[in-house]
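Students often ask why we bother encoding 3D structure as a string. The short answer is that it lets us treat folding as translation between two languages. Here is a chain of 487 residues written in the first language.
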Amino acid sequence: MNLQKVEKIHFIGLGGIGVSALAKMMVQQGKKVFGSDLNSSEIIKKLEKMGVKFYQGHKAENLSVDTDLVIYSPAVEKNNPERIKAKKLSIPQLSYPEFLGELSKEKFTIAVSGTHGKSTTTAILGLILEQAELDPLVIVGSKVPQWNGNLRMTQTDTDGTRTGTECQCRSVSGPCKSVFVVESCEWRAHMLNLSPKMIILNNLELDHTDYYKDINHLIRTFKTYIKKLPKDGIIILNSDDSNLKKLHSKSKTITFGVKNQAEVMAKNIITKSGEQIFDLCLHGKIYNFRLKVPGIFNVYNVLAATAGALALGVKPEIIKKSVENFYGIWRRFEKVGEYKKAIIISDYAHHPTAVSGTIQAAKEFYPEKRIMAVFQPHHHNRTKKLFKEFIKCFKGADLTIISEIYDVAGREEEKDQDVSSKDLVKAIRARYKKIPNSKFQIPNSKNVLYAKNLVEVKKLILKNIKPGDIVLIMGAGDIFEVANDLV
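And here it is in the second language, the structure alphabet:
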């Protein structure tokens, strides 16, 4: 549809990290923006300050008859009263990923995909392109401090004027006049809505088990996805990921990695004085990089963003400067403050690999500290399907607190309700008598604790916390509120 003719837009699920970015974008383009959600939030309050009219709860009367377009969160089902009314009134409706798909047709779209690291890679790439004066539009599934949120608007998208330089990508027809960097989620194959010119794939591992039957289903879906690239498009792949090796594209392929040979590589990685130092090897040249966020996964995120920026003609010196000025994003190993001289870190990790990687990153950055891992499983189906992996992923923690599973509205099925965090705690306790490879060995009957809710989580933290601890509060639900409460 012609967005220029749209004046009034109603958002359903306004507080979602992606939907809220679109709402901000529409406000900045002069649209009249309205929206609803079950509860208010910090994100919604900021939107209200921008002039957005917010309705708490989903009701048919929230939707005005003169609305030109409805944009809804993909978690909002067809039976939502506002969607039903929109249908009766013949108001056009687009889901969040469908709207991104329409937007991607108008721009040189770089879609950042994969199971882990999408938000961080999107943010790093966007910051690099900003530093290179390419004036990118960026939508990311987290909050980036430099942009004071989840959206970076371009001058072109704000007032129609063009600022900055044109990228010199040689793999597309002419220079890229309008670059759009977007986090592309694989849940329910939402990435298939996009029309990207470049796809960045960090990794591929089974997740969203309420949609994907197995890893083969996921790989088949991604094969369909990369076929959407035009002949002169670009695909950027992690050469160390075994599942990505099963994907083949006729488009130009650029690889990055740490272990296997790649066009963009990191070597000699060391952790020292609160930063990761490594050599970035590029076409025979070596650039010394410093990264202020922990974890080998973040080295991969930097490599992916670097490969994307280089493909657009950005100079390595600009990339290096941007990376050295990157301090992380919201809920991605975010140091939110201290409590009783213990450092409180909030992280979005909700997959076993991400949980394990976050614990390992903490051990590398704080080798002499006791690690308290506090985790809220997200979604019963994921917990059930990846149960064996979850049992193993807390190995490096000195004390583990696991809250009851977070119920995901609209995605939970009764058949999956037979699994509880109690089962997870019991299985972890049975797996080992003492935490291996730790100077703080605690008998297994005491080092893994169950909490029935967030109130109990906080009580257990307060009971067990010690000065100097590193408290990792992890999960994709509402457990981040515990971190905020502590500091």
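Translate back mentally: The radius of gyration is 23 Å. Keep this in mind for the problem set.
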